[in-house]
């Protein structure tokens, strides 16, 4: 029985693609690199900023740290207005809340960015916990964020469901012992998601209600 649902954020509950592309390319420019193609940047969403830099340039080390700082400075100014929830997400969160199934968010975004969006949409009371990259020692695909969220909710891993759009989400769920439901709203091909053994593959998160209806929550 599903007693709690945890979500990734970007490309799962919503997206901030315009802001991510803007800030990635501004950070690259600050380090003297040419702009990266949008699709290449999309494929890095969900990774740490250091991993994003490495994927886009093939480099790591000190330059990755400088990229991270430049990206964060840009994001602090621009990301909020470029971040939006997908259609149907407010209704989904209200449905889960009405059923007594706590919802949480575990993301590689910083927690305050997610809270800003939820507060703007007056949805923050419907989300029981938000675990951002700034709240754990190791980001996804490490299981730290999921384990922290489960402790906060008082739910055992097999009783939860983690919903995400990327292989990073699938690996984190597997390492935490949490069933994984994949959504196809991101940049990850279906075959890559299926490699992580999802209990379901949904076109988008609005299909979650029907999935839960097939196995009513405790």
CATH superfamily of the largest domain: HAD superfamily/HAD-like
Helix content: 40-55%
String of helices and strands: EEHHHHEHEHEHEHEHEH
- Computed CA radius of gyration, to the nearest angstrom: 17 Å
Q: What count of structural domains?
A: 2
- How far is the N terminus from the C terminus? 5 Å
Profile the largest sheet. Answer: 6 strands, parallel
- Count every helix, treating DSSP H or I runs of 4 or more residues as helices: 10
Structural class: alpha/beta
Q: Give the strand tally.
A: 8
- Give the DSSP E fraction (strand runs of 2 or more residues): 5-15%
The residue-averaged pLDDT reads 96
**Regions with pLDDT < 50 over 5+ consecutive residues?**
none
How is the CATH topology of the largest domain named?
Rossmann fold
Q: What overall form do the CA principal axes indicate?
A: globular
Question: What would you say the CATH architecture of the largest domain is?
Answer: 3-Layer(aba) Sandwich
Q: What's the arrangement of strands in the largest beta sheet?
A: 5-4-1-6-7-8
Question: In CATH, what is the class of the largest domain?
Answer: Alpha Beta
């Amino acid at each position: 029985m599903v007693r709690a649902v945890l979500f990734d954020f970007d490309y799962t509950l919503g997206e901030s693609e315009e802001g991510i592309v803007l800030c990635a390319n501004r950070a690259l420019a600050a380090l003297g690199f040419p702009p990266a193609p949008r699709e290449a940047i999309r494929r890095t969403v969900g990774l740490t900023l250091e991993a994003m830099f490495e994927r886009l340039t093939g480099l790591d080390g000190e330059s990755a740290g400088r990229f991270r700082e430049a990206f964060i400075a840009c994001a602090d100014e621009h990301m909020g207005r470029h971040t939006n929830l997908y259609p149907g997400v407010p209704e989904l969160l209200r449905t889960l809340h009405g059923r007594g199934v706590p919802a949480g968010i575990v993301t590689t975004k910083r927690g305050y960015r997610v809270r800003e969006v939820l507060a703007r949409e007056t949805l923050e009371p419907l989300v029981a916990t938000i675990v951002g990259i700034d709240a754990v020692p190791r980001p996804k695909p490490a299981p730290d964020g999921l384990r922290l969220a489960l402790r906060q909710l008082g739910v055992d891993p097999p009783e939860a469901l983690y919903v995400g759009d990327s292989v990073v989400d699938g690996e984190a769920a597997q390492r935490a012992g949490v069933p994984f439901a994949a959504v196809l709203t991101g940049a990850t091909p279906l075959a890559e998601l299926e490699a992580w053994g999802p209990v379901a593959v949904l076109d988008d998160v609005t299909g979650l209600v029907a999935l839960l209806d097939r196995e009513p929550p405790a």
